[in-house]
Write a structure and sequence with these properties.
Layout: E1 10-14, H1 21-31, E2 34-39, E3 51-55, H2 62-70, E4 76-78, H3 82-88, E5 94-96, E6 102-103, H4 108-124, H5 136-156
Parallel strand pairs: 1-2, 1-4, 2-3, 4-5
Antiparallel strand pairs: 5-6
Helix pairs in contact: 1-5, 2-3, 3-4
């Protein structure tokens, strides 16, 4: 397949709890990338032909399944869901957390193991943890990481 016939890069967003929808829309608009906001509830999204609202049925992993079945090596996935990231990384997708942290083949195994260990410790009462608040610095890091991811995919193509 030549570069001219490769399908275009798309962005898939696990949108239910995504704090960076506006930032994604800005980068997608700048690069002309179709962006799928996948959720099981209706939400206000940016307007435009590039933005696709995908409403899936409620239930465990329905939105994750929709994204994981479509994301490929030319695509970008935005999620804070580590198990979803672990499903998309082997497909070759570029996967970013909401704070700009990449999930990749080098870190997804340890990240998933840590997540599972902490879940177990919380269930047994051995640990209580809280997620840190989302900061302006997180938003800025995310914007930089998304722009870098788009540029890297363009260079590969």
């Amino acid at each position: 397949m030549t570069t001219a016939t490769l399908p275009p890069t798309q962005i898939y967003v696990d949108a239910d709890a995504c704090p960076v929808k506006d930032e994604i829309a800005r980068v997608a608009t700048r690069h002309g990338l179709v962006t799928h906001f996948v959720a099981n509830n209706w939400m206000r999204l940016p307007e435009g032909d590039l933005f696709k609202r995908v409403l899936v049925a409620e239930g465990p992993d329905i939105a994750d399944n929709w994204i994981a079945e479509r994301a490929s090596a030319r695509d970008i996935v935005i999620t804070g869901d580590i198990p979803l990231a672990a499903r998309c990384v082997p497909n070759g997708a570029t996967v970013l957390n909401h704070n700009g942290k990449p999930f990749n083949a080098n870190n997804i195994g340890m990240t998933l193991a840590t997540r599972n260990l902490m879940a177990h410790l919380r269930e047994t009462g051995a640990a209580t943890t809280y997620n840190a608040g989302f900061t302006k610095q997180d938003r800025s890091r995310f914007l930089e990481a998304l722009e870098a991811a788009v540029q890297a995919i363009k260079r590969r193509r």
